[in-house]
Structures are given as C-alpha cells and as structure tokens.
Write a structure and sequence with these properties.
Layout (H helix, E strand, L loop, with lengths): L2 H22 L6 E3 L2 E3 L24 H14 L2 H5 L4 H5 L7 H26 L11 H11 L28 H12 L1 H35 L10 H17 L5 H29 L11 H10 L1 H10 L6 H6 L6 H29 L7 H4 L6 H15 L1 H16 L9 E2 L8 E2 L1 H18 L6 H23 L3 H24 L6 H30 L4 H9 L4 E10 L9 H8 L2 E13 L11 E5 L7 E8 L8 H24 L4 H26 L1 E11 L6 H17 L3 H4 L7 E9 L1
Parallel strand pairs: 5-6, 5-9, 6-8, 9-10
Antiparallel strand pairs: 1-2, 3-4, 7-8
Helix pairs in contact: 2-10, 2-14, 5-11, 5-14, 5-20, 6-19, 7-19, 8-9, 8-16, 8-17, 8-18, 8-19, 8-21, 9-18, 10-14, 10-16, 11-12, 12-20, 19-20, 21-26, 24-25
C-alpha cells in the first residue's frame, strides 16, 4: 500500500470519528447552509459517503422542446450512422460477391447488429445510464465514482452527498453481489487504475473516431462523382475533401444549436431519400431479401466462408459507426428526444437503405464496389449525389460534438490538460465548443486525408468503445441498478459476445491501417494519464504537507504580521486544509488582508451543481480574525462564470454565512439575552467585509507550483514529472486564465514541490 493510501485510510477513520463527535457536541466552526447543520470536513480526508434514495432528474422538458431537440438531434447525432450506407457494403465485398447468398448473410449481420447494438443497447439501455442527462464514457465513470469510492484523487467531502444532483436512484432491496463488487472496486488499487485507464481509452477512441470518420465519409461521398464522370482523379477528390473538412471545422464555433438547425433539414432529406430509394430497390429488384431477417443466413454465411466471413466483420461494423455518438452527444439534447428521432426516422430509413442495396446487388453482383451510387435510379442520381455530399459533410458533426462533450467532462474531472471550453447556448448547458480540440481534429483529419487518401480501417476505434461501454454498463447494472443476474448474463452472451467478435475481427486488420486509430488513442491516453498522474501527485504532496490548524492560528495571532484593508482570495486545489504555499507566502510577505478567504474550485462527479449549493464556507478561527475557507463546487457541465458575477455571489454568500454562523452559535445560549449582541456582532463582521471591499478591494493570491521528482525517484518518474508533465503545464492554459482571474489584481507565489 502506498503512502497516500495509508493517509487516506487513516484520515477517513479520523473523519468518521469526528462525525460521531459532532452529533453529540456543538462545534462553532461548523458549516452551514441557511440554518441547517452540516459536518465539518475542513480537516477530513475523502470522507465516506453513501448513495441516497431519491434522484433529482434532469429538468423536465415540455413536449414542444422535446420535439425541437429531436429535430435538432437529426442534424448533429446521426450523421455518421446515417451515411454509413455509402461505404459498408463496398467495405465488406472488397473482392466482389463470391456467392449470391453471401449478400443475404451480410444483410442479416447488418440488420441484427443495428438491432442489437444501435437500437437495443444504445437507444434503450445505455441512454438510461446517463449522468443527470449527460452521456459518454466519462459520464459512466463519474456515475460509478459516486457510488463506489474509485476516484484516485482523494478530494471527496461529506458535504458532497448533500448536493441534490449527487444522489442516485437506487432500488431499496440490497443484493450481496452489488456490495461485493463495490467493496472489490474500493479496496483494490489496481482496479481503480484499470477503470481510469479504460475510461481514458474509451474517450480517446471516440476522439480518434472523430478524426477518421469525417475522412472516410467525405471521401466516399465526393468519390461518388466518378460514377457519372471519370474526369476527377484521386488527387482532385482528395483536395476537394480537404477543403470541405476545413470549412466544416471552421463553422464549429457557431455552436450546436445553430449547427443543428442548419443541418437537420439536410439530413432529414437524406434519410427520406435513402429510405425511399431503398424501398424502391427492394420492390423492383428482389423482395426476397426480406429472408435476411432469418439469422440462419448468418450461420450459412460463416459455414461457406469460414475465416473470410470472420474477417468481413471488420466491414460490417462500419454500419454501426456513430452509434457511440448517440450516448456521447446526449448532453447536447435529451434522452427522450434522441429516442424519438432514432425510432421514427433514423432506424427505419437506414434499414430500408441496406435492404434496398442488397436487393439491387442480388441482380447486379458486379456493382458491389460502388453499391450505393450504382443502386440509385439514374433520374435522381445528381440530386442524390448533392444530398449525399452534404450529408457526408454533416456526418462528421456527431463525433466532433461528442469530442467536445467528453473533453469537457474529462477536463473537469482532472484527466485532461486545461483547455478553453466555450458554452455556445444559454438554454442548454451541454452544448459546448473547445477551440483547441477543434483545431487538433481539423489538422489530424486533413493529415489523414492527405496521407492515406482512403481508409476503411476505422472499425477498431468503434469496437473498442463498444466493449468499454458494455463493461462499464455491466458495473452500473450490478452496483447501481441491481439488475437481475439472468438479464445481465443474457446481455453479455448476446450484445457482449457480438462486440467481442467485432473487436477480434478489426484487430486482424491492424497492420492494414487499423493501427491508426490505436495510435491516436494511445497518444491521447498518454497525455491524459501524464496530466492525471502529475495532478494527483501534486495534490497528495499538498495534502501531506498542509498547514495545521495550530500553525494557522499562530500565523493569525502573530503581531509581526501586519493586517491591511482588503479582501484576499487565496486559490488552492486542496479541499481538506490549507496549501503549504500559504506559509511560504507569509514567510516572504508578512502581510495579511483584513479578510482572507481560501478558495478551492472543485468539480464533483456530477453534471451540474445548483447555484444555491455551489459555495461551501468554513470559519477557520475566531470571529475577530476574518479567515474563511470556501469550496466552490461545479459539475462538469457548469460554465465558469465571469469574475465580476463570481465575486458578487461569493461576497453575498460569505455575508449570509457570517449571519448564519452567528445565529447558530447563539442557539447554545438564552436567545432573548443575546439577540441584540448577536445582531451587533453580525453587523460588525459584515461591516468589516464591506470596508475590506471599499478600501482595499479584491486581491487574488495564487500558487505557482514548480513540480519536481524527489531525489531517489526512478528514471521513469523523473521523465514523467520533470519533463512531460511540466511541458504540458507550460503548453496549456494557466490556472488564472482557466478560472478567468483578472491579472491586474493577481499576485503569484512561487514554490517548488518535490514529489
């Protein structure tokens, strides 16, 4: 067991004892929200918490808003899934159709893959595992973190469980296996690391998919013009695709709301077109392909082709590309809106498109390499081509938006370097734009398009995301939903087994371009893990070397330290205690402001924290010293407010806390005798705060930490901390930029941490 784990266990035990003591004895330094008593976690470490009954669901939406979101979601969520008919069958039959019934076998595989994974798994099961309306790999991770203490950064507090959105909707009946799994996850440090790495890998795979899928969608759509004219060469198609991709990424800054309204009509027309053409081809060429709903054709297909049938699964999985976006993009919309659009428009149109292409190919085996455009009736070829190109451009939107959402989540949970997150809608918190990620995706997309000109090996990213999501979903089923064990087994033996077969197949094509998504993913995982590792080590150093209460009282009462007018906000990431940078500051600048507030900005593993529950205050010493502790709690979807509004809310909440603190203290005495005294005390303290603002203003103090590996550290640790982590810190946005702190009133205090 590492030193940090020992500290966590010891402090957790101390915290539990302190909670028991507080139930019996009044502590004047407690925390209050209004007049409600809460536990003091100033000096507690990772206090234990349990899931409470009752779930605060996402804000109820009226049907008008739901239908509006359902319409918008068509333009954002389903682009990749909807344009997959452009390239799936050519990807499966790369060497042509060897047996006519192979078409039925492949069609049956496509039909049941869409039915089991896209419709049943994602639309009806995974969407239900949302985190207060937000989706994606990190949303599942945060959901698990709330129920089991698997977070590697020990910054949990007893008060966190009082936040309304923190509570989980858990069935009353207790099951031994749920407790066993929860206990196993909490006690095993290796399991905690494994879950975090799988979360990072799933996130990185979605971003990698967001790089490769736009390339293949646009190249496939633009390449269709060769059906009508051979004048365009591969290089010309490549450069046209690059231009289209650059334009697509440049319009991301306008936000999901505007993009959704602009793109939704085009994709709606696309779905109507492919559904209608599919129905036409089905009726005209070979209605007998309806036999593909019989899964025996899958068995016969594998019997005929054996290993080649297994390899062809790498092409079949392309029909599922974009399914993960249904969950990852959930924060931009709502569960009900996505279910409505999926079941009424998207799924029927895609199924008709595949049945129509299969019906056409049964009569025209030679057209397998260009199945989509060859099956389009000549009179509507050019309208279909124009809509297909537009749909392919839009197709990239689903995974681009998903990338923004999951980066926002991972950033808030301390697993991604600090980047700028722009909230593009005042109505929907989940609609965000990340400029740095947008630029990264654009450069990578253009690079892949120029370097490969065409690529069909994107299934590896899709298969990995499916497998990781299913693994986390099983944990949610066991621990949180407490699902019947037989249903879990059925899920694993059907959907889980199918996803495993897809994964094994795409790994076979690793050397044929399949390494590309893995390369992107491993690069991102490395960056994310290095950042998380450095952040966690820094936090543990501050926790182990935090300022004791005795030392703090000694500093506050030291006559050699001058008090000057002003409200000082001392920013620290530590939520249990005071950072050692404070003593370093006092030793070099022996001056304290009349009001000193230690501010910790903390992200909870939930999507949003109500404004009235955001600020958590402590009093650090007697009423005369003017020293307070404030933990500002955000969810990963909450926007950081501008400084002026943040200051107003903080000062208002501080005054309210002072009033409640004094009134709560008076409950121990005869209220009639001390009422006037209490009111005078409240007025005096509030006046001190007002005077501090009027005569000294607000001063921001922030630690500038230089992190170095301690002497005797291994070479790998020195490489990770001294070079990689510090390089990342220099490259990304600094803390004052990230928290929008005005630089004119900012003082940075430098200190070296040897970790």
């Amino acid at each position: 067991m590492e030193r940090g784990d020992v500290i966590e266990e010891e402090r957790s035990q101390e915290g539990n004892q302190e909670e028991k003591d507080q139930e019996q004895e009044f502590d004047q330094h407690g925390i209050y929200n209004g007049l409600k008593r809460k536990f003091n976690s100033f000096d507690l470490e990772a206090d234990g918490f349990t899931s409470n009954q009752g779930h605060v669901s996402p804000q109820a939406l009226d049907w008008g808003t739901i239908m509006k979101l359902a319409f918008q979601s068509i333009g954002v969520v389903y682009g990749d899934l909807g344009t997959s008919p452009l390239y799936v069958l050519p990807g499966v039959f790369q060497t042509g159709v060897k047996h006519n019934d192979d078409i039925l076998g492949v069609l049956s595989l496509i039909f049941y893959s869409l039915m089991l994974i896209t419709l049943i798994k994602y639309v009806f099961i995974v969407l239900a595992a949302n985190d207060n309306g937000d989706g994606g790999t990190f949303a599942l991770y945060s959901l698990i973190c709330r129920y089991a203490k698997v977070s590697l950064t020990p910054n949990q507090q007893a008060e966190d469980k009082e936040v309304s959105n923190y509570k989980l909707d858990v069935p009353n009946r207790r099951l031994k296996r749920a407790s066993f799994v929860k206990s196993m996850l909490e006690k095993n440090q290796i399991t905690k690391y494994f879950i975090l790495l799988m979360t990072m890998l799933g996130t990185s795979m979605v971003i990698g998919d967001g790089i490769l899928t736009p390339c293949i969608s646009v190249l496939s759509a633009v390449g269709g013009v060769r059906e009508a004219t051979s004048a365009l060469t591969d290089n010309m198609i490549m450069w046209i695709s690059v231009a289209i991709l650059i334009i697509l990424f440049q319009i991301q800054r306008f936000g999901t709301d505007k993009i959704g309204y602009s793109f939704a009509p085009i994709l709606t027309i696309w779905f109507i077109f492919i559904g209608t053409v599919g129905l036409y081809n089905f009726v005209k060429h070979d209605p007998g392909v309806i036999k593909a709903v019989n899964p025996m054709y899958i068995v016969k297909y594998f019997n005929r082709n054996k290993k080649n049938a297994w390899i062809s699964l790498g092409g079949v999985i392309l029909c599922l590309t974009g399914s993960e976006a249904l969950f990852a993009d959930l924060g931009h919309f709502s569960v009900r809106s996505i279910r409505i659009s999926s079941c009424t428009i998207v799924f029927p149109s895609i199924v008709l498109a595949y049945f129509g292409q299969a019906s056409y190919l049964r009569k025209h085996n030679q057209d397998a390499s260009n199945a989509f455009y060859s099956s389009v009736p000549k009179p509507i070829y050019w309208p279909m081509f124009i809509v297909a190109v537009m749909a392919a451009i839009i197709a990239s939107q689903s995974l681009i938006s998903a990338s923004f959402s999951i980066v926002q989540q991972s950033l808030a949970l301390g697993c991604f370097p600090r980047v700028k997150v722009v909230h593009t809608s005042s109505k929907y918190k989940g609609q965000v734009y990340v400029p740095e990620i947008n630029t990264l995706l654009m450069v990578a997309c253009v690079g892949v398009t120029l370097g490969f000109k065409n690529t069909l090996q994107i299934g590896i990213a899709v298969a990995f995301v499916f497998t990781i999501t299913s693994s986390f979903l099983v944990l949610v089923m066991v621990m949180i939903w407490k699902t019947n064990i037989y249903l879990i087994i059925i899920y694993a033996l059907t959907i889980g087994l199918l996803e495993f077969l897809f994964l094994s197949s795409v790994l076979y094509k690793f050397v044929d371009g399949g390494y590309l998504p893995l390369l992107f993913a491993l690069t991102l995982v490395t960056i994310m893990y290095l950042w998380s590792y450095g952040y966690r080590k820094t936090y543990m150093y501050e926790l182990e070397n935090k300022v004791s209460k005795g030392k703090l009282m000694e500093i506050a009462s030291d006559p050699s330290i001058h008090r000057v007018p002003g409200l000082a906000l001392f920013y620290t990431e530590l939520v249990q205690g005071i950072s050692p940078i404070f003593t370093h500051y006092v030793a070099n600048v022996p001056v304290l402001h009349s009001i000193l507030v230690f501010v910790s900005i903390k992200c909870l593993p939930i999507s949003t924290v109500p404004l009235e529950e955001r600020f958590l205050f402590h009093r650090l010493n007697s009423h005369e010293r003017g020293m307070f502790r404030c933990v500002v709690r955000y969810g990963y979807k909450d926007a950081r407010t501008e400084w002026e509004s943040f200051k107003e809310v903080l000062v208002s909440q501080l005054k309210e806390f002072i009033r409640n603190d004094v009134l709560m203290s008076s409950e121990l005495a005869d209220h009639d005798k001390v009422a006037n005294v209490d009111e005078e005390m409240v007025q005096r303290e509030v006046r001190i705060v007002d005077d501090a603002l009027n005569f000294g203003g607000v001063v921001h103090l922030m630690g500038e930490k230089e992190v170095m590996a301690s002497k005797g550290s291994s070479f790998l640790k020195k490489l990770a901390i001294n070079y990689a982590y510090n390089w990342l810190k220099r490259c990304v946005r600094q803390a004052d930029e990230f928290f929008m702190i005005p630089r004119k009133r900012l003082l940075k205090v430098g200190m070296t941490y040897e970790i």
